[in-house]
């Protein structure tokens, strides 16, 4: 506890950091190591040289390996009941020879390990781009100089960094805020952690991939710089916010929670049909934190406190609890009772910031927003195609024959995005919040103008928005559960 009190000059330690577990399970080393949360032994991850196998323990102390016909020893295993292979759910045709090259570019090579060790140890002002490929250094550096601008093009940055946007952007921000030095983090471990995080995002997913995580992290950075938060947040709050943004959709399977529940997926059973994806993202992040020993130099109660608070932030992105958080936020604003001097209120503001960052795509400039809309709808329709194939009830917004990109986006903007960002603008009435609302209005108008054209005639065009507004709460929240 003394670590945070002495090294966080901007405020007291966050709530819950004083709490400790009665027992703490020892963590083995990398290469065949086992990492799991001792408070939930039903989630057990085993990673061996970069490949993971999920073991589960549902009703007894003995660890039973999930056995099935065709099971392969990879954490991204095939669907246990429908035979749906999540690893190829959104895969595209590519030559077999290109796969190793793509993965090699993302691996933490021994040469970069040595280079980063030499350059980073003891360096007062770290230049993140020393560990970038030279061909991309100049252009990527120029982009990182403007990482706080709202029109930041994450797609371009991802290309300039060889598909490593999440690693380099998050590393840059951690260094820019001085968190690596303040929390005495081993910079090699930081990079190892970020590489593993990026690898655990399934880039076959059109939307829920590492680029989305990088985009959310960049948006979170923009919100952290808003005057109300910048003047109040401690360094610990900022560290939590960035880590939560980077890991908030870790190992997302590309389908939503109702799909996992109705197919009796083991994750749904593991988390008892409650915040299934969000719990999985959180536990996966904890597994990587322990695997890399990123916080092993801190007292045990402090590292456990970080894990718990990280979970609190990630679980807040559960869209099924959207009204709960929004009502609480609105009440605070109506009563002017949100005091950022209190650690619990600062944490709540971080939760709302992460929720905004997670679904901020409609508030981006049209060129960026349109790309995200196309990607998330593609992922919806993939799920719908699987449901059709296996004669399951098609989830809302996932039927490509009954929905268009425009109708999906109009409903989502109207019933999910607009209410949240209207309240955020009340909380942080700045140029950025007004800019986001302005983009939201223009983007919604653009989709509305495209809807008649997408349906093929004016009559059909009028019927599509009607379908989009039917049962707004359930339809919009269903989409949100996938986008988040």
Q: Count of helices? A: 22
- Category by helix and strand content: mainly alpha
Number of β-strand runs: 3
Q: Fraction of residues in helices?
A: 55-70%
Describe it for me?
The chain is mainly alpha-helical. It is built from 22 helices and 3 strands. It has helices at residues 2-7, 98-106, 110-120, 134-144, 154-160, 165-176, 179-182, 187-200, 210-224, 227-230, 235-247, 257-262, 266-270, 276-292, 300-315, 322-335, 343-358, 366-389, 405-427, 431-455, 458-469, 472-483, and strands at residues 34-36, 43-48, 51-56. A 3-stranded antiparallel sheet has the order 1-2-3, covered by helices on one side. Helix 6 (165-176) runs antiparallel to helix 8 (187-200), helix 16 runs parallel beside helix 19 (405-427) and helix 19 (405-427) packs antiparallel against helix 20 (431-455). The longest helix has 25 residues, at 431-455. The radius of gyration is 22 Å and the shape is globular. The two termini are 33 Å apart.
């Amino acid at each position: 506890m003394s670590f945070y009190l002495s090294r966080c000059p901007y405020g007291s330690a966050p709530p819950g950091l004083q709490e400790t577990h009665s027992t703490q399970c020892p963590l083995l080393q990398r290469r065949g190591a086992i990492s799991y949360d001792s408070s939930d032994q039903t989630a057990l991850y085993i990673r061996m040289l970069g490949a993971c196998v999920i073991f589960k323990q549902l009703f007894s102390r003995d660890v039973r390996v999930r056995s099935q016909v065709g099971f392969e020893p990879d954490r991204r295993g095939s669907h246990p009941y429908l035979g749906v292979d999540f690893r190829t759910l959104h895969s595209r045709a590519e030559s077999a020879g290109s796969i190793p090259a793509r993965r090699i570019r993302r691996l933490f090579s021994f040469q970069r390990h040595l280079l980063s060790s030499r350059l980073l140890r003891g360096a007062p002002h770290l230049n993140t781009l020393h560990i970038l490929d030279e061909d991309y250094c100049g252009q990527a550096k120029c982009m990182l100089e403007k990482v706080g601008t709202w029109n930041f093009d994450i797609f371009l940055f991802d290309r300039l960094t060889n598909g490593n946007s999440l690693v380099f952007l998050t590393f840059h921000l951690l260094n820019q805020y001085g968190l690596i030095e303040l929390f005495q983090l081993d910079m090699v471990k930081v990079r190892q952690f970020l590489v593993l995080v990026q690898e655990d995002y399934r880039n076959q997913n059109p939307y829920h991939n590492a680029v989305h995580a990088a985009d959310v992290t960049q948006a979170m950075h923009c919100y952290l710089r808003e005057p109300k938060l910048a003047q109040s947040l401690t360094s610990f709050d900022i560290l939590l916010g960035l880590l939560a943004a980077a890991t908030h959709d870790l190992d997302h399977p590309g389908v939503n929670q109702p799909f996992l529940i109705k197919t009796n997926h083991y994750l749904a059973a593991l988390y008892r049909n409650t915040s299934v994806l969000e719990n999985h993202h959180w536990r996966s992040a904890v597994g990587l934190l322990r695997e890399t020993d990123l916080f092993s130099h801190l007292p045990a109660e402090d590292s456990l406190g970080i894990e718990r608070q990280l979970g609190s932030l990630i679980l807040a992105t559960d869209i099924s609890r959207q009204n709960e958080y929004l009502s609480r936020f609105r009440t605070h604003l109506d009563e002017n009772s949100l005091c950022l001097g209190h650690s619990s209120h600062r944490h709540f503001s971080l939760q709302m910031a992460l929720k905004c960052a997670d679904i901020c795509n409609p508030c981006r400039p049209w060129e960026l927003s349109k790309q995200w809309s196309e990607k998330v709808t593609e992922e919806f329709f993939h799920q719908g195609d699987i449901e059709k194939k296996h004669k399951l009830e098609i989830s809302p917004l996932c039927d490509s024959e009954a929905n268009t990109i425009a109708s999906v986006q109009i409903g989502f903007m109207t019933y999910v995005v607009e209410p949240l960002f209207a309240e955020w603008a009340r909380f942080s009435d700045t140029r950025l919040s007004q800019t986001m609302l302005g983009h939201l209005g223009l983007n919604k108008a653009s989709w509305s103008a495209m809807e008649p054209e997408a349906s093929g005639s004016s009559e059909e065009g009028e019927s599509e928005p009607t379908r989009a507004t039917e049962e707004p709460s359930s339809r919009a929240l269903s989409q949100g559960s996938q986008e988040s």
